[in-house]
Amino acid sequence: MLLGRLIKEALQGQARFVAELAAEDAPLARLLAEGAACRGTSPEAYLAQAVQDFLAEDDDEAWTTVTSALQGDRAPGAAFLAAVVRRRLRLDGVSEAADD
After folding, report:
1. Which residues contact 88 (CB under 8 A, 6 or more apart)?
2. What's the number of domains the chain is made of?
């Protein structure tokens, strides 16, 4: 899937992304649920907000860092979502997210 399409679908809060994240990285999925609970929202909405915040707030350096991390990954879309969720978790003070 192209990154633009993935971003569009993630912004719509599609539940499949949370399920895919849980299948790929259960500890991160648990942190996502914790972050969502802290904000009083669903994991899907939290993930969508993480993507929206990344798009709105991050600069070229952040994009370079994330896209560099995606190179050679077997699932770059999932890696992108994981990276922006980890970023959001760190910003929200969910400290275990720094252990990725």
Report:
1. 35, 46, 49, 50, 53, 54
2. 1
- Residue-wise pLDDT for 53-97, tens only, equals 888 876 788 888 878 877 877 777 788 888 889 989 998 998 664
The DSSP code sequence of 24-84 is H-HHHHHHHHHHHHHHTS-HHHHHHHHHHHHHHH--HHHHHHHHHHHTT-SSHHHHHHHHH
Query: In this predicted model, what pLDDT tens digit does every residue of 91-100 receive, in sequence order?
Result: 899 866 444 4
Query: What's the whole-model pTM score?
Result: 0.80
- What is the domain range of residue 20? 3-99
Q: In Å, how far are 15, 16, 58 from 64, measured between CA atoms?
A: 27, 26, 10
The dihedral sign for the CA sequence 83, 17, 19, 34: positive
CA–CA separation, 76 and 70 (whole Å) = 5
| Tokens standing for residue 86 | 């980890």
Check: CB of residue 47 under 8 Å from CB of residue 32. yes
